[in-house]
Amino acid sequence: MAYTRHDVTLPTGPLSYYKAGSGRPVLYLHSGTGVRFTEPLDKLAEHFTVYMPIFPGYDGTKLHAGVKGGKALAQVFLAFVDTVIKEKTDVIGHSIGGYIAAWLAVMAGDKIDQLVLVGTGGLRPKGSPPMPTDPKEMLKRAYVHPENIKPDNRTPEVSAKNRETAQHYSAVFDEELAGKLKEITAITLIIHGEKEGIIPEETSVLLRSRIKTSYMIYLYDAAHVPEVDQPQRFFNLVGDFLTRGQAFLVNKGDRPPAGVSLPS
Amino acid sequence: MQFSYFHLMPYTATRTVPHDWPVSNKDFDPKVGANLYRGYLDNLTLAEECGFDWIGCNEHHMSPYGLMSNPNIIGAALIERTKRAKIAIVGSLVPLLNPIRIAEEYAMLDVMSGGRLIAGLLRGIPHEYVAYNVPPDESYGRLIEAIHLIKKAWTAQEPFGWEGKYYQFRAISIWPKPYQQPHPRILMSGSTESSAKLAAREGAMLGLVQITDVEATKKMIRVYRDEAKECGWNPGPEDILIGCSCLIADSFKEAKETLEEGRNFLADILGGGMRTAQQLVLQKSRYYDDDSKKKFMDMRKIMRVPIEDLLAKKAIMCGTAEMVTESIHHLHKEFGHGCMSLSMKIGNVPDEVTAKSLRLFRDKVRPHVHNL
């Protein structure tokens, strides 16, 4: 499924985004690395309309004036939902994208249908080991199967700038968000790689304990980027959740190998 | 040194030599079975009275080799009859079962016993895979994933789900949680290099429950220790369990003759049918790597190694209390282990003989070895 690039002007500035597929909307908020075209996203686009905005400042785009931190960036995506998607949407957020997605769900429960948080950032409890800074160590802790990583077209300069931009939006532990997690009304799936080496398990446990209707799933043989470590398993899980909501708890018995049986 | 008394609970009231597997149960007499269970539970209870620190049982299916298709049921019965001894389930055959059920049942046993469970998590022996129709090729992968899932079920602070290769669960929160925190001690087999390494990686005790050769056993301990070091921990003596058959009698002649008869019964009748299936699975699957396959291929040969050869290798204990005491000292010197498992009910060795052997252990062996 081919993603096409689009541009929109929001009150805070211009925003580029990728779009693919048709059907119910899914807003995908990327990790600190930036947009990644993974196998599960391609498969999701066979059943949903997937919107994947490029965070302002990423991949050569400009920061929006006055937009700093997770809460402010969530406001930008709220405007994106109002302007581009224009209906209630499911949201998937990975790493820093999960942090922003959680803010979005706090601020606009009426606009978010189901929420998927994957290796969520911004809520690193005190006493957790620090994020690795050495790229080799980062790679080791982020992937169980680095052999699955597809080549990145970004130049080293763009990748470095992306990492710098992530700091512009991220938080170590966002006390305000932690205090507001109980306000999230969206049914939430929390995915934690069983061998996650970047985000502490306590973060996902915190999300599970505070978000009223939430389900935490360990993805076996996966670390921080389960979409890459276990693409099929990730798609099976997320596809089933987005399709059946809370009923994903119930074994439907005839699950086909692809993982989901979606309505036509 | 901790001592474990291990029992297979064989069905000894048959004389039929089986050639196939599963073994037909037409010879099983339920009344005899009821008496056997009662007698075996008495025997295991006596082991605690005779100073054994653990009493152990395990899982086998569809033959007279062992009457414990679910050892946790025996574990529950033993909890009610004992006060001090650890209940060593060595162990559940993990790849054949629902891992959540294992986590739940082990947690129950641990809570019911006030923290006396030793949680054996084993891959099992090849023919058991026919019994539960599980692909033997998947045994290792299933074992590893299931162990991770079981540990998570024991320790998770919030309800969780699991999306794995072999297991998918969407909602888990076991009641009760284990008594021992974070979880009961895990024991895993180390009869091959890959299993010894896995035990080390999982931080489990290494169980070599039926040694056949001192040098081969030392090698597995070395593999286990090296791998544990790689993983950042150093196993102590208490992390290594060594086991062998044992019979203590008033004379070497008496012990040898009784044990020999019991071993013949084990090889010909109790182990007869399962060898067929074992060979089939070994030939038609990748259950073991090639080296291990060669080692386990001829089960009959393994079971029929003459006692003299095993005695020469110190891989069996048979004789007077003094001889067994000397053997325990010798093995301890060789292996530096902290736990010794002794099997006294070998084949059809009469229960009164194993009871006498247990009492001789209490009176004449244990006083000389428990401080090792």
Written overview of the protein:
The complex is a heterodimer of chains A (264) and B (372). Chain A has nine helices and eight strands. By secondary structure, chain A is of the alpha/beta class. Chain A has an eight-stranded mixed sheet with strand order 1-2-4-3-5-6-7-8, with helices on both faces. Chain B is built from 14 helices and eleven strands. Chain B is α/β, with parallel strands linked by helices and 372 residues long. Chain B starts with a strand and ends with a helix. Chain B is globular. Classes of the chains: A alpha/beta (264), B alpha/beta (372). At the A-B interface, α7, β8 and α9 of A face α5 and β5 of B. β8 of chain A pairs parallel with β5 of chain B.
Mean pLDDT of chain A: 94
Q: Let me know the number of strands of chain B.
A: 11
Mean pLDDT of chain B: 93
Question: What can be said about the biggest beta sheet of chain B?
Answer: 8 strands, parallel, barrel
Whole-number radius of gyration of chain A?
17 Å
Short description:
The complex is a heterodimer of chains A (264) and B (372). Chain A has helices at residues 39-44, 70-85, 96-107, 135-142, 156-169, 175-180, 201-210, 226-229, 231-244, and strands at 4-10, 13-20, 25-29, 49-53, 89-94, 112-118, 187-193, 214-219.
Chart the SSEs and their pairings.
The complex is a heterodimer of chains A (264) and B (372).
Chain A: E1 4-10, E2 13-20, E3 25-29, H1 39-44, E4 49-53, H2 70-85, E5 89-94, H3 96-107, E6 112-118, H4 135-142, H5 156-169, H6 175-180, E7 187-193, H7 201-210, E8 214-219, H8 226-229, H9 231-244
Parallel strand pairs in A: 3-4, 3-5, 5-6, 6-7, 7-8
Antiparallel strand pairs in A: 1-2, 2-4
Chain B: E1 2-6, H1 30-49, E2 54-57, H2 71-81, E3 86-93, H3 99-112, E4 117-122, H4 128-131, H5 139-155, E5 160-163, E6 168-172, E7 185-189, H6 193-201, E8 205-208, H7 214-230, E9 240-248, H8 252-270, H9 272-284, H10 290-297, H11 299-303, H12 307-312, E10 317-319, H13 321-335, E11 339-343, H14 351-369
Parallel strand pairs in B: 1-2, 1-11, 2-3, 3-4, 4-7, 7-8, 8-9, 9-10, 9-11
Antiparallel strand pairs in B: 5-6
